[in-house]
């Protein structure tokens, strides 16, 4: 089996690596990630010009890629550079919009002309869509939304939000232009928002979009897992470099066998994570593919936390200071576990899908 | 006018180079390889000349292992029109020497008849800085090395060269060989739509034997070693102490 990237993916990865390496240092990233609108517009335009946003959607729907592999290549590089640009929110919104024939809006997003986010989660909801409480009702030919949405990734500064809400037919999708949002920075940087809807008028895109929504969310999870692999690799490089430089008791830390073993264990975790992401990418869209996604998200959640803790432990105090990039990688890895369902949610989903398969 | 741009596959400039344990060379196993940065600048300049209407076609050439195809795809994704890969060795550790490269390039120039050859001033792996000059001698063409500005006007080109102590502007007759320096331009990133277009651009594969050039090495690498480790610094208390220490070290 050949696990190497194809020539195109290698070129895409190189381009993104160089673009982010040249333009996105850690100081710039931290300033952008914690100051509204929690990203840099010129970087976003640059990513659009490179066709990176287009890589999230298939050619027939106006993009330049759209496969799970394309998405994992992009997000692994974003993770390596700890990029706070709102690519996850854009990916989720783009996928549901392109599934529902919104070609013009998709084109605008791909070109960087406008930006969108997807509102799915609610304060009382885990990753199970059936627990959604927000509702959409048609009154006099206008759809009215009620309820509260939370954790809308990449929403601050976006031009529109696609909202998932319960309809009589299932989980519908609604288009909200210039939404009034409650914006904040996430604990690791990057924008997130809440949305309160009280008889809010919206355009209906679909009355039952559960399949499309689940597929978009699963792709988002694959993206987060790939991002984590990139972030873990970068954190591992930082840690090993530090061990080779830092001297204690007259010798470098890297000469202590106990620390070598811990560094090797970290590398093993990364390789396991990389493999499970490849498996989730390969199985995406196949029957039972959602199980591979949940397995990956669960393992990445656990491994990300372990990597963060081990890295800080091996660095000592400096490993958790604001000035040291390692601390921000550690925070990001812990945060990735909580986005689009944490390790427990995905263990439960795995059990539920496994049980369903047995019954079927 | 056609422009020919030779590009070399070298160890990526971000990679920390490791010397092989036996000192026979640099360890290239599982190491990221990229286009030589100076060659990237040459490709960018050719594209800019094409955008300015002074060049009609850009042909990228790479001589080395089969994997150099990736380097050529990068050139095509940046904007070159077609590519020629000359497979001269199977061994990734083998470096084709400048004279053999220049001879193969001469044969390609004879075939392609470009009006301009734009190449990097040197490759960052062996730092030879020789291929452009050798090609110029073999062809009997004008040469302008270390270019930091290129202005092609009809049958001549005005080239600003980076020389010790300043800049020198020369005028060369076309056809010419121009070797480019770091400050000539900022190479563009290959965008995803262009990466996809590059797949459809022609890439011809040849061998060194097709051009009748013997690529066997004439130089022997005796030893390769890491540079000496930088000694630890010291903190001095005053300017006087600093001067004293510098005097002790024989620096002033």
TrEMBL record, chain A:
GO terms for molecular function: acryloyl-CoA reductase (NADH) activity; acyl-CoA dehydrogenase activity; flavin adenine dinucleotide binding. Its cofactor is FAD. Residues 6-107 form the Acyl-CoA dehydrogenase/oxidase N-terminal domain. It is an enzyme of class 1 (oxidoreductase). Pfam families: Acyl-CoA_dh_1 (PF00441), Acyl-CoA_dh_N (PF02771). Residues 214-331 form the Acyl-CoA dehydrogenase/oxidase C-terminal domain. InterPro entries: Acyl-CoA_Oxase/DH_mid-dom_sf, AcylCo_DH-like_C, AcylCo_DH/oxidase_C, AcylCoA_DH/ox_N, AcylCoA_DH/ox_N_sf, AcylCoA_DH/oxidase_NM_dom_sf. Keywords: FAD, Flavoprotein, Oxidoreductase. Its EC number is 1.3.1.95. Belongs to the acyl-CoA dehydrogenase family. This is Acryloyl-CoA reductase (NADH). The gene is acrC_5.
From TrEMBL, chain B:
Residues 23-215 form the Electron transfer flavoprotein alpha/beta-subunit N-terminal domain. The keyword Transmembrane does not apply. The keyword Amino-acid biosynthesis does not apply. PROSITE patterns: ETF_BETA. One of its GO terms (biological process) is carboxylic acid catabolic process. GO terms for molecular function: electron transfer activity. Its cofactor is AMP. Keywords: Electron transport, Transport. It holds the Pfam family ETF. Belongs to the ETF beta-subunit/FixA family. The electron transfer flavoprotein serves as a specific electron acceptor for other dehydrogenases. It transfers the electrons to the main respiratory chain via ETF-ubiquinone oxidoreductase (ETF dehydrogenase). Heterodimer of an alpha and a beta subunit. This is Electron transfer flavoprotein subunit beta. It comes from Pelagimonas phthalicica.
